[in-house]
Amino acid sequence: MIDPLLLVLVAATFLMAGTVKGVIGMGMPTVSLALLTATVGLQSAMALLLAPTIITNIWQALVGGHLRQIVRQLWPFLLASVVTVWLGVSVLARVDVRWLSALLGVLIIFYALSGLFRLGVGTLVSHGRHAGVVNGALTGLLTGMTGSSVFPGVAYLQALGLPRDMLIQAMGVLFVVTTMALGLSMGEQRLLSVELAGLSLAAVIPGILGMQLGQRLRRRLSEATFRRVFLTGLLIMGGYLLLGALIG
């Protein structure tokens, strides 16, 4: 029997995460990971984000007219990010999850600070002949260990100078392929229970409702203001995760 409080928590989390995605076009995995890791733990949080992340990003990955170009241009990056997810999940299955929660906190803090203060992270990840493979491999490894594909994946895509519509579609492709690989590898490592899989599927509904709400809010709110509030909230949550892991 699923705890009703857990159902409410999951629904509220993905409603909020979907709203953020609806306003700024991304952020659902990051927000859901930050909130759920603090309450149900990292492994359960990673399992719960699978279905909402995949389903809400499939449309983003397919629509835009640039899919063929994205695959042709970015296939080394995407392939490397998928392959190394398995390595990351094998670490997740064997390492004290407290330290991986701390790592997630650090990644969220870094992501929030780079967005708030425009630190120019793209210049750090976009150089070199093999930048795509290196960044893809690191993205997949961190996805497997923490559930987050944001760094350095999104920073690398942003640094490529892609047109806005192509960038949004490329992020959708990245999130779909890495999250699908995450789900398969977690299942292989027996980190994905039937109960968590069912809850993840149920979370799709509040996630989509949140996206619709966010899209309506986008017409009324300043995206820049919302982004600052969003990043500040992430900074606080990242700090909370890191502190909790260190003193827990």
UniProtKB/TrEMBL annotation:
This is Probable membrane transporter protein. Belongs to the 4-toluene sulfonate uptake permease (TSUP) (TC 2.A.102) family. It comes from the Bacteria. It is a multi-pass membrane protein. Keywords: Cell membrane, Membrane, Transmembrane, Transmembrane helix, Transport. GO terms for cellular component: plasma membrane. The chain crosses the membrane at residues 44-62, 74-93, 99-121, 133-154, 166-184, 191-209, 229-247. The keyword Transmembrane helix applies. InterPro entries: TM_pro_TauE-like, TSUP. The keyword Transmembrane applies. Pfam families: TauE. Its main location: membrane. It is found in: Cell membrane.
